[in-house]
């Protein structure tokens, strides 16, 4: 029974902790990549904004599940909407993360034709596609999910779709396919970086190429963390699917252990949807500096040093010129 009590504590406190840490960070992440012009120049900014919106929605839905009035067992409508929304938003979030990994691979490629795929035009074109496709694919959850009497348990009402949902839609779209895509493009990006000393070689390297270099590092670290956080859930899904016919023969202790592993793997998976901002903050000095300046400017915490977003070069040059003029004037007067 101790395992069952621990599982209940994880189920209750896990969503609260993850939402408190991740939701404000995801909102700030989206705000920064929309408001700051230098961030918007990167094609990955579109994917990060879309992923941030999906992350906030996922964390909010998970948080509402600990409230009886808004849980999946509250009503038939709540069962349908919550299952559909959770499945759809997780697929959207993982799709945008895969698009970010694809963009970093294209950005670091030595082939000019592939590098053209990393552009704001392509990002604007691809931005609505995850929302549309994931919504259409998961519409059957609205039809074949309902409360099962007499225990009012939210589950599938159609046996065929139950197998499709548990064996195909949920494990493949939300776990295995994104995991494969992230690993593949992560390895390809690392291979490209080994052969290229600078991202997008140009005659004169601009601040955009420097920012793209840091964006690549940020996305690679996020991809690596996502892979590690998705593996426990993938292993549990494989075990659950492989032993689905033995579920009726399990004892109460075995069910308690499965519930504990289920809630624990869900909490670890939710780290994917709450960690993007913190990964960017830790892995990019320019992102940290820009966030600091932006927050000071918005909340009036200090003087307006917006020019320091240009890495402080311009301010130092103007100060040096002014000091040189003062020294020259003093020399002439003397």
Automatic annotation (TrEMBL):
The lineage of its organism: Eukaryota, Metazoa, Spiralia, Gnathifera, Rotifera. The chain crosses the membrane at residues 12-34, 46-69, 81-102, 122-144, 164-190, 224-244, 264-282. It is a multi-pass membrane protein. This is G-protein coupled receptors family 1 profile domain-containing protein. It comes from the Eukaryota. GO terms for cellular component: plasma membrane. Its main location: membrane. Gene3D superfamilies: Rhodopsin 7-helix transmembrane proteins (1.20.1070.10). InterPro entries: GPCR_Rhodpsn (IPR000276), GPCR_Rhodpsn_7TM (IPR017452). It is found in: Cell membrane. One of its GO terms (molecular function) is G protein-coupled peptide receptor activity. Residues 25-280 form the G-protein coupled receptors family 1 profile domain.
